[in-house]
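Q: I'm a student working through a structural biology exercise. My instructor gave each of us a protein and asked us to get a predicted structure, then write a short paragraph describing it. Mine is BHLH domain-containing protein. I'm not confident about reading structure output yet, so if you can add a plain explanation after the tokens, that would really help. Here is the sequence I was given:
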Amino acid sequence: MSAPAATASNADPSPPPSTPKPEAAAQELPKFNFELSPVPANPLGEGRYIKTAAALVIGDEILNGKTLDRNSNYFARFCFEHGIDLKRIEVIPDEEEDM
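A: Happy to help. First, here is the predicted structure for BHLH domain-containing protein. I'll explain a few features afterward.
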């Protein structure tokens, strides 16, 4: 015997569990979607560390708006959280001479 189909009278009006609530969406940021490499430890125990960073985003789909560039936001947040001064993010087209 199969379960009865959902009708207007017995359908659950709440959104599915995977849909974030609007107020929670602003607070819950998704995990980084790029690989993180550990900052190499200074063998002397002090001194050298990553101070500044930059990012190069390559893609026509970013420039023409077909794809939303979320990685820049994640990378900037990662740098801020780790005390790294993000100096620049550049977006260039998929053209070899621009690379």
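A: Here are two points you could use in your paragraph. Residues 49-99 form one domain. The longest strand covers residues 85-92. It's a good idea to check both against the output above yourself.
Q: Great, thank you!
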